[in-house]
Structures are given as structure tokens and as C-alpha cells.
Amino acid sequence: MNLINEKNVFRNPVVAQAADPWVMKHTDGQYYFMHTRSDRLELVQSASLARIGEGKRKVIWNPEPGGAYSRNLWAPEIHHAAGKWYVYFTANDGGGDETRRICVLENERANPLEGEWTWKGALDTPVPGLDGTVFMLRGELYFLYAGYGHFPDYGSAIYIMRMSSPIKVTGDHVLLTAPTMDWEKQGGMAINEGPVLLHRNGRVFLVYSASTTWSEDYSLGMLTMNEQDDPMIPSSWSKSDKPVFKKNPEHAVYATGHNSFTKSPDDTEDWIVYHALPAPGADTALRATRIQRFEWNEDGTPCFGVPLGDEQELSFPSGDHGEREGR
User: Fold this and answer.
1) Helix (H) and strand (E) counts for the chain?
2) Over residues 153-166, mean pLDDT
3) Which residues contact 27 (CB under 8 A, 6 or more apart)?
4) Is 20 annotated in the active site?
5) Is 193 a catalytic site residue?
6) Which of 118, 182, 264, 319 is a plausible cystine mate for 269, CB 3.0–4.6 Å?
7) How far apart are CA 92 and CA 68, in angstroms?
8) What would the pLDDT profile of 210-250 be if each residue is shown by its tens digit?
9) Residue tagged active-site, from 77, 131, 184, 193
10) What are phi and psi of 55, to 5 degrees?
């Protein structure tokens, strides 16, 4: 990351070779950051969003070699629910899509860098899938994931399920969005994946990634629901007919997707965290974590703007003093 401290500005990317970034700002004032490492799960704690890659880090999970969930550890997310920490991640045995499942770890300590992370198993989803996330609405916990299938083209679609606890799904899953439009089918597969939720202005926004992650046209789509409606009913949601965030060739930012959302340290600003590639056809190992502030439209919907280039100086998030380590 290129920081210019005397100007209190930074440039993207903030973390090199860091795909599928997940950033959570907790009530302790710390940011918790995870990204795909494939063979292990690593957690980073930082007081600074701009310096998120320079915080305290700890490998919290090394899978047992040769096990059913020992390979291709992807898209880890850390959440806090019912007084405990949970990490949801995708894993398999090295086989194909049909072997992928979303697994769960649990930690009871107040500081997730301390104590032991315990294995709670793979969630019993009706179909194989990846990119699991959770969200709470009106006191009910829900699980969303990208399940594999034909829609009619082969790929993945976003499903929702109820949860009886942070480690158990219940009932059937409901299809919320499938890749049916051309911009969702670039790169050789039809993909809706990486669901993440925003709850604001009386509405719930489900932002997801579309097309293949190796395609320069990997981008973000969005579903919108009124907060009083039932998220388990597909008709509660309306879908954008075009990407809400996509590549910026003018500034050499491509394959923008698999995002998360967070706030500035003082909670006055909204920030999107996402990965991108520096050129069309670039190796996916070069996917890097980027952050930028976003605004809200007059109608209460999010306005993500366009991806900002590496040469553009960005102001630090409000209240971010650039601490290198969490405390």
C-alpha cells in the first residue's frame, strides 16, 4: 500500500494479493479482516482501515491434511452473534464444485485473536456451494450462500435459509437471484456469488458478485427489499438490471467484486471493500484488496460510483489515524 502520511492520504490497493476481502468493524473499535489464503485461515486485527493489512495477524485454522474440508479454503468471513465469534468459509477435499461446502468455526473469547477456534462442522445446505454469509433481521438469523446448479447455464445462484443458531441452518433454501442476464455470464460460467447485506433507509440491499472472478467483467449486482417484508419470499426483492459497480478501464481496475461493507472509525462514512485485477486476463493471484468511500442517492439507495485507480490519492477514512497495529 502506498501511504502518503503527511497528506493524510493513501492509494489503492491497500493489500496486495488478497482476494475475497471481508472487513468487519466490531464494537471494540477494531477492524477484523480476512481474505482467501487457500490452505489456512488468517485473521487480522487493526485499528486502521487504511492500514488494514498491517494489523496484528494470527493463523486461526490449519485444516487436518487430507480431510474432507482441507483444501481450497475460500472467502472466509468473521461474524459476531449471541456473544460468540464465528467464521464461515468454503472448503473441500480438492475435488470439483460438487464437493464444496460452507464450514463454521466458533470462538468464545472476547478477543478473537485469543482462545481456541473450534470446528463446528459443515452447514447442511441442500446443494453444494460457497461464499456463505449471515445477517439478522427483526431478531431472526438468516444464512445466504451461492449454490451450484443449472439456471439454465451451469454456475451458481444465491439462496437464503433460516438459521436456528449460528451453526445450524433449518428448512429448505429459497432461490433469490440466478445468473440470467449477459453481464452475469461472462468468463465461461453463469455466476451469482459472494452475497453481502446492507441495511439502511428502511431497506435491505443484497449486493452480489456476477460473472467469473477471472473475467475482467466480474462486477456487482444488487437486490433491494423493504425492511418490513419477508426475505424468504423472492417477490420481496427487486433486482438491478445492470451492474451497480464494474470495471474502470480508464484507470486500469478490472474484475471488481467479492466485496464487503464497513464504516470509518468514527462511524460517519460508509466504505466498500472489494478485490480487483490490474489488467484484463491478469492472473487471479493478483487480485488485490481495495477500499473506497461510497455515498447514498436521494432515493436512499447506495451509490458506489466507479473504482478509483492506483494513481488517485484518497483521503483516510474519517477518524483513521493510521495505527499500524490493533490494541
Assistant:
1) 0, 23
2) 98
3) none
4) yes
5) yes
6) 264
7) 6
8) 999 999 999 999 999 999 999 999 999 999 999 999 999 99
9) 193
10) -80, -175
C-alpha distances in Å from residue 258, one per residue of 36, 82, 148? 11, 26, 17
Q: Which residue has the higher pLDDT, 286 or 322?
A: 286
Nearest to 222 by CA among 208, 201, 202, 203: 208
Q: What is the pLDDT of residues 7-50, one digit of tens each?
A: 689 999 999 999 999 999 999 999 999 999 999 999 999 999 99
Nearest CA among 112, 120, 51 for reference residue 84: 112
Largest CA distance in the chain: 55
* Alpha-carbon span 290 to 35, nearest angstrom: 12
pLDDT at 327 over 50: no
Asked if residues 156 and 149 have their Cβ atoms less than 8 Å apart, the reply is yes
Residue 297: is its pLDDT beyond 50? yes
Using CA of residue 278, residue 280, residue 283, residue 285, what is the dihedral sign?
positive
Residue 299 has pLDDT above 70, yes or no: yes
For residues 104-125, one letter each, b for 16 or more C-beta atoms within 10 angstroms of the residue's C-beta and e for the rest, the string is bbbbeeeebbeeebeebebbeb
Report CA dihedral (221, 318, 76, 39) to the nearest 10 degrees.
Answer: 120
Residues 6+ apart with CB under 8 A from 144: 132, 133, 134, 135, 158, 159, 160, 161, 176, 195, 197, 206
Q: Which pLDDT band holds residue 321 (cuts at 50, 70, 90)?
A: confident
Q: Is the confidence at residue 323, as pLDDT, over 90?
A: no
Residue 216 CA from chain centroid, whole number:
18
Contact 205, 303 (CB under 8 A): no
Output the DSSP codes for 210-277: ES-TTSTT-EEEEEEEETTS-TTSGGGEEE-SS-SB--BGGGTBEEEEEEEEEE-TTS--EEEEEEEE
